[in-house]
Amino acid sequence: MHTLLIWESVPENIDFYLIPDDAMQPEWIKKLTTAHGHYLNGARNSVDVDDALSWINGAIAPDEYADEEVDNVLHIFKTEMEQPLMNANISRVFYCGFIM
Q: Please, what is the end-to-end C-alpha distance for the chain in angstroms?
């Protein structure tokens, strides 16, 4: 089974991260749950939501943009979507992002 993270960088692109459930850490699930449906630079985010979104933004950063404060642990799960996602056995979907 997998967790699917959909990260939207408004207005430029949408990235998909297919994370094996056995790699998911409880801390990651908590942050993804808190951030779900919200955007960095979005209006009326709570401090907890902005903290979770900032962590995700750092966790998906490629190595060349990695932040010393946040381990970029999720970037390796980025999935290119040239083809439809088939038979991925998705257990959870989180959707959030960044407004530029």
A: 32
